[in-house]
Amino acid sequence: MDLKVINAAGEAQAAVAGSDALFAREFNEALVHQVVTAYFANARSGNRAQKGRDNVSHTTKKPWKQKGTGRARAGMSSSPLWRGGGRAFPNSPDENFSQKVNRKMFRAGIATILSQLVREERLVVVESFTAETPKTKAFAQKLAAMQLDSVLIITKELDENLYLASRNLAHVLVLEPSQADPVSLVRFKKVVITREALQAFEELYA
């Protein structure tokens, strides 16, 4: 599979060959959905808590007598039917939302996403991507010159200048190949990957 290459001015260069196993895979919507859903589920902290009937503040006194009032029977104000009553099935703070994704399935999902990015012309390769200074303004100007606004940059090693220059840009994220996740890959309009990171990607997932 030939991958599009651009230079520092955003101009197209000679294409580079990429692994067919990683960049020429058929799109599998169900697989991508499962991998992305599992990623979001595994990121949940599970710290929400609700009060049951035994946790709410209430009296155990019967609100009114059993018969003769015309009202429905009521034994305690902690009933889930009452305002201020406890939940019938309260959420527990130690709830576990994690979903298991096999390594083979995760790799196949990443390859499917990358292949779709290539087909949609959203993935490009650059020789290298560096920041001379840790200044956000200079880095933003460099991205503008390359005609990139919403972009995920994948580089072999994340140096300090590149990290500091990019961290305040809301629509820019810089990662190393091992840190790339399915949500970040589909979130941005463009994915820019360096040649060294491309080799690392192929070693990880191909």
From TrEMBL:
GO MF term list: rRNA binding; structural constituent of ribosome
InterPro entries, A to Z: Ribosomal_uL4, Ribosomal_uL4-like, Ribosomal_uL4_dom_sf
Gene Ontology cellular component terms for the protein in this record: ribonucleoprotein complex; ribosome
Keywords from the named record: Ribonucleoprotein, Ribosomal protein, RNA-binding, rRNA-binding
Taxonomy, superkingdom: Bacteria
Biological process terms in GO annotation: translation
Listed SUPFAM superfamilies: Ribosomal protein L4
Disordered: annotated span: 48-94
UniProt xrefs under Pfam families: Ribosomal_L4 (PF00573)
Bias (Basic residues): 59-70
Subunit structure as annotated in this protein's UniProt entry: Part of the 50S ribosomal subunit.
HAMAP family, per the entry: Ribosomal_uL4_B
Known role: One of the primary rRNA binding proteins, this protein initially binds near the 5'-end of the 23S rRNA. It is important during the early stages of 50S assembly. It makes multiple contacts with different domains of the 23S rRNA in the assembled 50S subunit and ribosome.
Family: Belongs to the universal ribosomal protein uL4 family.
The protein's name in its UniProt record: Large ribosomal subunit protein uL4
Organism (species): Iodobacter fluviatilis
UniProt lineage: Bacteria, Pseudomonadati, Pseudomonadota, Betaproteobacteria, Neisseriales
